[in-house]
Give the backbone structure.
Amino acid sequence: MKAIVLALVLFGLASSVAAQAGPASPIPSESSNEYRQLVQQALDEFERGNWDEAAGLFQQAHQVSPSARTLRGMGLSAFEGRGYVAALEHLRAALLSTVNPLTDKQRVEVEDTISRAEKYVAKLQLTVTPESAEVFVNGEPVPNSGGERLVVLDPGPVEIRASSPGHQLALRQLRMVSGAHQHLELHLAPAAATSETKVDSGSGSFPYSALGWLSVGLAGASAIGSLVAWQTREDAAKDFNRKKCRDEDMMLADKSTCDNLSGQVSSADTAIVITAVSAGVFVGAAVVFFVLDGTQGKSDTASTCAAGPGELGVQCGFSF
């Protein structure tokens, strides 16, 4: 119903094009025909509920012959498409335009729509430090007015970017709802404070940590070797006894077999001692290397600072 009413009211656009330009700026007939076609197409799209298409066609008609009527059409289309910021801009301009001005009834309708749109837009109040920082909201620059910056937005997701020479980029993302009025403080951290600074522990530092883990691995391997040697000795000792190779049984045993088993027991004993000692040495080495690595890091001091979320300001962390 609203679309039909708008179509009837705006129908005068096509029939009054000559009056819009005034006697000093006559409109060629081909431009008048183009204007009428664009307006009619815009009305058709508006009636179908294709708000973006209607707004685009009204804008094209406005470029051909700007007037209060085309501004009104753009504004009402933007309002129906929930583009409340654009609707306010166009509708306010329509009230001020003296080219083919609005009728009294149209002015009342536009003023009512403006009142409704003002309740739907969201307002974001920004306080930025330093004040000279460049601020972009949803990709659009927000000029510095010498204090707080007020941005009027359509409801939905919002991205704020702020940058300044010598400072770290600040980025915030939030969602604004209809009628919201939010205040946000952005404190840009100095660039030097956001970088991690360390006293020379880069390419010149010794890889004690790597050697420590290598020692742990070797200690484990030595311990496993010691267990294997112990098991080998136990098996050889059992065979030695089973073959009656003890002194009192030597007359019943095969001498070569006994000598072989005795050699295995002796070799296993030696292996047990070597692997056990090696495991202990590697464990000690690992402890030393890890201590040296920790001591090497103690001389370093690192600091990190960044802008905190929301209104928390700056967060800093230090390690010594």
